[in-house]
Structure formats: C-alpha cells, structure tokens
C-alpha cells in the first residue's frame, strides 16, 4: 500500500468523526512516529509531512555520510557508497535526506499502523464525548430508547452517543418502548478504559429541581430559589422554595392556578405527589410546614440533638405520617430533624421496642417503616390497612395487636 492510498483510507475517519485538520495531523504523526520507533529504534532523525486535505504523506530519514566501513549507527549514518546511489555528488560529512516508503516498514507494520490509527481516533472521540457530557452533569437531557435490558435501558441521542438509564434510576411506574424519548438528568460520566459511561437518572432530587427550572419561569429567572428537594421517586416529594421579592408568593407561583403549573411535572414523574413548601429560617415553623397537610398542636425541639417531638390531635397523626411513612420521613430529610409524633391527650403509651420479649424485632421494624413506633399508634390502625402497608400477614398483625392490647388491659 502506497502512502497516498493509506492516507485516503484514513480520510474516512476524518469525515466520519468530524476531526479537525490539525488534530488529525497530530494523530497521524504520532502513529507514524511509533511505527518508526519500532522499526528503527528511534524517530528523532525523521521528518513526517502530513497533508490530510490532499491525501498525501511523506516520511524522510536524515543521515550523515561517513566513509565506507565506518558506519556505527545505520539509522543515523550512511556509507559514502550508499549515499552516492541516491545522489552521485555526496561527500563525507554531508546530510542525506531519503524518503521512506510505507512498503519499507513491512506489511505487518502497515496493518498495525492502521489499527493504531483507528484506536487513537476512537480514543480522541471518546475523550471529546467524556468532556462534553462531564459539562452536562446535573443537567436535563433527552435521548431515545434504543434497547431495553433487564437491569437498564440503553438510550441513544441524536449524535449516536450511548446513555445508560439503570433500573434503580427509573421511577417505579416508568414504562418505555423502543423509539420513545426519555428525559432525565445526566447523573455521572466516567471513563471505563477509554470508553465513557454516561448514566442518566430520573430518581435524583436534581431531576425534579431541573424540571421546576424548565416549567416555572420565576425559578428559571432566579426570582424563586429552590432551597432543597427530597423525594421518594414516583410516590412523594417535598420542595422547599423561597423568594427574595416580597411581591412573589413562591408556593403559588410554582403550583399555579389549580395546580396548572406543576401538573406537567407531576405527570413526567409518574403522578408523584409534590408538596411545595415556603422555606423559612425559623426551624419550628419550617417543621410545621414540612409536616403538611397535618396540623400541629405543639412542638418541643432540641436544636443541638436535631430532634423534634411533635404533638398532634389523634385524627392528624395519620396525615403527618403519610402513606408508607413517606410524609414524616421526607419532612425529616427536608428539615434535618428527627421527628417523633405524639398524640394529644394520650397520657400513657408504650414504645414498641419495649415488647421485644414478645414481638420479634423484624416485626417491630415493619411497623417502624410506616411510622408506627408505639403500641397505641398500632392499635389505632385498621388491620386490613396494615396488611396493605406492611409485609406482614393478617394473622401476625392480629397477634401483635393482642399483645399490645393486653398491656393496657392489665
């Protein structure tokens, strides 16, 4: 293969990958210098002239003429007799430049050259993709479903870049078909080997925050600030918002008339229930707002330990805890406080952990998961509702209730 033919084959990569002329020349020179090092041991005395636009390449080896029989370094020196075969008037001590043809490198070297070039161009391409998506971390991105696997969905963007949406970054209700467009945030970008791995997420709090920026002009313009977002993806979320302009109601602006503004966000997130809350530096008031829709009677706080004991009327307790304990858990995450709920007017109650000699720890843990930590909290619940909300059998729940009831009957 002649030099020109090799360069013509390389031009495919330039057109396909849109590599600029300077970069391609640098890659070509680097590849050829590596080949020369393997063949001749060094490349310092070689000049490589690359012109990818014209499709030509020249390699020149520079040597010094020495007297016959005095050649010690065949790569840097050439005998007078050999030099005069190139040009008859060469003398000892003069410099000789001789063109090296690719055929001189050998067929195996030429094949290695091509493979090395492909590798270098892919490496350059992957580096550019990595940098491009690294700058997009935390931003919303849209791509098309290309392949559906058990543990992940493989997406392709308009440029053919592969993006992975793992199962645990999908909202539980998500269901996508091949060819559908999917929105999420670019959560992370890593180079594994030379290939970038781009991970998308629809469960990250940042995705909800970016949706607010896209859908609510006041958030996009900076008139409303999102202070914090906490989520149970697909179930419930709480968003604390604030505004430095007293004329703006941040909650009203985010929700809109009859929920008109937030509706598209809720739909995107699989009907996730979103509570928008006015942020305040008054921690007691913030906890009160965070436990919405429950109405609180009083709060006893320990700011150092970051704990809050909240007193509510019995009918407000289930609202404060929420389905599956989501409301109280998210309120705790939003405020940074460990929140315990107590019923107003209940003088005597016993924590479930006091019954470990009669009730197994894993059963107590099941009740705790849904915010039920005391005996009376469990006894106030409906058995069928507890079967639905926990992983416990009906018989187990009835046995537990019998144990708890006996405590108060004594």
UniProtKB/TrEMBL annotation:
CDD domains: KH-II_NusA_rpt1, KH-II_NusA_rpt2. Residues 233-306, 307-384 form the K Homology domain. One of its GO terms (biological process) is transcription antitermination. GO terms for molecular function: DNA-binding transcription factor activity; RNA binding. InterPro entries: KH_dom (IPR004087), KH_dom-like_a/b (IPR015946), KH_NusA_2nd (IPR058582), KH_sf_prok-type (IPR009019), NA-bd_OB-fold (IPR012340), NusA_N_sf (IPR036555), TF_NusA (IPR010213), TF_NusA_bacterial (IPR030842). Coiled coil: none annotated. It is found in: Cytoplasm. GO terms for cellular component: cytosol. Keywords: Cytoplasm, RNA-binding, Transcription, Transcription antitermination, Transcription regulation, Transcription termination. Pfam families: KH_NusA_1st (PF13184), KH_NusA_2nd (PF26594), NusA_N (PF08529). Gene3D superfamilies: 3.30.300.20, Nucleic acid-binding proteins, NusA, N-terminal domain. SMART domains: KH. Belongs to the NusA family. Participates in both transcription termination and antitermination. NCBIfam families: NusA (TIGR01953). Monomer. Binds directly to the core enzyme of the DNA-dependent RNA polymerase and to nascent RNA. This is Transcription termination/antitermination protein NusA.
């Amino acid at each position: 293969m002649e030099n020109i033919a090799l360069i013509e084959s390389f031009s495919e990569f330039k057109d396909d990958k849109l590599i600029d002329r300077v970069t391609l020349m640098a890659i070509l020179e680097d590849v050829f210098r590596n080949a020369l090092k393997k063949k001749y041991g060094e490349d310092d005395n070689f000049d490589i002239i690359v012109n990818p636009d014209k499709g030509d390449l020249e390699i020149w080896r520079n040597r010094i003429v020495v007297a016959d029989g005095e050649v010690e370094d065949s790569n840097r020196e050439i005998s007078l007799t050999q030099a005069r075969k190139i040009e008859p008037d060469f003398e000892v001590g003069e410099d000789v430049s001789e063109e090296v043809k690719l055929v001189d490198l050998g067929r195996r070297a030429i094949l290695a050259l091509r493979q090395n070039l492909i590798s270098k161009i892919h490496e350059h391409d992957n580096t550019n993709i990595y940098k491009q998506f690294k700058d997009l971390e935390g931003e919303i991105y849209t791509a098309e479903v290309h392949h559906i696997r058990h543990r992940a969905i493989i997406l392709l963007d308009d440029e053919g870049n592969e993006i992975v949406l793992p199962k645990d970054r999908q909202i539980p209700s998500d269901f996508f078909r091949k060819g559908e467009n999917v929105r999420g945030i670019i959560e992370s970008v890593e180079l594994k080997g030379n290939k970038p791995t781009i991970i998308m997420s629809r469960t990250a709090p940042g995705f909800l925050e970016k949706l607010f920026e896209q859908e609510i002009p006041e958030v996009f313009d900076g008139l409303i600030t999102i202070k914090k977002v906490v989520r149970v993806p697909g179930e419930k979320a709480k968003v604390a918002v604030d505004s430095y302009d007293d004329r703006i109601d941040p909650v009203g602006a985010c929700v809109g008339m009859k929920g008109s503004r937030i509706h598209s966000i809720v739909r995107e997130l699989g009907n996730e229930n979103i509570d928008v809350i006015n942020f305040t530096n008054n921690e007691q008031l913030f906890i009160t707002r965070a436990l919405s829709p429950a109405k609180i009677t009083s709060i006893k706080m320990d700011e150092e330990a970051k704990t809050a004991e909240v007193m509510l009327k019995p009918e407000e307790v289930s609202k404060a805890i929420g389905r599956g304990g989501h409301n109280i858990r998210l309120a705790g995450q939003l405020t940074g406080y460990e929140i315990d709920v107590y019923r107003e007017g209940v003088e005597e109650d016993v924590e479930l952990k006091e019954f470990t000699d009669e009730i197994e720890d894993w059963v107590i843990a099941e009740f705790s998961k849904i915010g039920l930590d005391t005996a009376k909290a469990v006894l106030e619940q409906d058995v069928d509702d507890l079967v639905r909300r926990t992983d416990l059998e009906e018989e187990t729940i009835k046995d537990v209730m019998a144990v708890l009831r006996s405590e108060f009957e004594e």
